[in-house]
Amino acid sequence: FLEGTYVDGTAAERIKRPIRDLFDVPDLDGTDDQIANGTFEVAFGEPRPLAPFTAQRIDYSLHRMTHYTATSPQHFQNFVLFTNYQFYIDEFVARARELMESGGGGYSEFVEPGNVVTKAGAGAPSEGTPPQRLPQMPAYHLKKPGHGGITMVNIGVGPSNAKTITDHIAVLRPHAWVMLGHCAGLRNTQALGDYVLAHAYVREDHVLDDDLPVWVPIPPLAEIQVALQEAVAEVTGLSGYDLKRIMRTGTVATIDNRNWELRDQRGPVQRLSQSRAIALDMESATIAANGFRFRVPYGTLLCVSDKPLHGELKLPGMATEFYKRQVAQHLTIGIKAMEKLAEMPMERLHSRKLRSFSETAFQ
């Protein structure tokens, strides 16, 4: 069926033959990730794969993107921001709508779930219908010609969502994706609102263990790191020691248990200390590891929103004020970093660190 086609479920009841006899259905033998994972074995004399994904795998993911984000794959841009909080999306939407009203500022369209399109220079959408309920991971697209704009996706909380959506967006071969979200600060010297620029990851998310073993290092990519650091410096107006005071570079631990604080502290805290972790969340390592796995340049800039090891937890009133103040600045930094990356030559951005011994002809 073409995208957007609606078929009443009762129609299937009138069909006496199995649906699979009437339509092409996914062939799981051609829908796996063996090529991208580096486990695909080519028999002697057989052709080698030309790209990281088979046609069936791409087709499957294009449909899944529509399902999870309520926007068509054609709207996705080459620079993708992921977040784990709706506050960031609200701020992104407000800014995008203001840009459209004022002429776009270099962006041509803004697309919201339901493929609701607002064109630059317009104060209201010109097409699309908002969904009755938001999808699992709604996506928003601030578009430029040639897919050179920014897509932002609210992946919610947890490594499962993070893996699911990056599995699918990867088939579009974006130029970069970056995680912007909140984290637990693990060091006493950190303050609420400080930034964490990840340069290493402790992977206890477990969702990628079968595809990318935990012994595989996930290296920092210089181009992404520099763009994020420069963006923080420009937005905050800080430099030197003052910049280091509010932004630490270090290891981020990603776990799959949101209530890890409720367990015996000795085990988790010892591992965090041994790894020299400075922050903890539930998505960043998953997004970075899938970027490494799929050859998509990746990065992480988090904001410390609580310090559970030091008894600093946000009360409702504190949380409201914190989000108002910090989300706007954090998002500005993320957008500026993406705009910096978009100005780079793409052959420079796609790091050699992401290439295996034997790569496909087309990335």
Give the gist of this structure:
The chain is of the alpha/beta class and 363 residues long.
| Overall body shape | globular
Low-pLDDT residue spans: none
The tally of domains stands at: 1
Compute the average pLDDT.
90
Number of helices: 11
- DSSP strand tally: 10
The CATH topology corresponds to Rossmann fold
| Second rung of CATH, namely the architecture | 3-Layer(aba) Sandwich
CATH C-level: Alpha Beta
Explain this structure.
There is one protein chain. With 363 residues, this protein is of the alpha/beta class. The protein has a single domain, classed as Rossmann fold (3-Layer(aba) Sandwich), CATH 3.40.50. The protein is 34% helix and 18% strand. It contains eleven helices and ten strands. It has a five-stranded mixed beta barrel with strand order 6-9-8-7-10, surrounded by five helices. Strand 2 and strand 3 form a beta hairpin. Helix 5 runs parallel beside helix 9 and helix 6 packs across helix 10. The radius of gyration is 21 Å and the shape is globular. The model has no long low-confidence stretch (mean pLDDT 90).
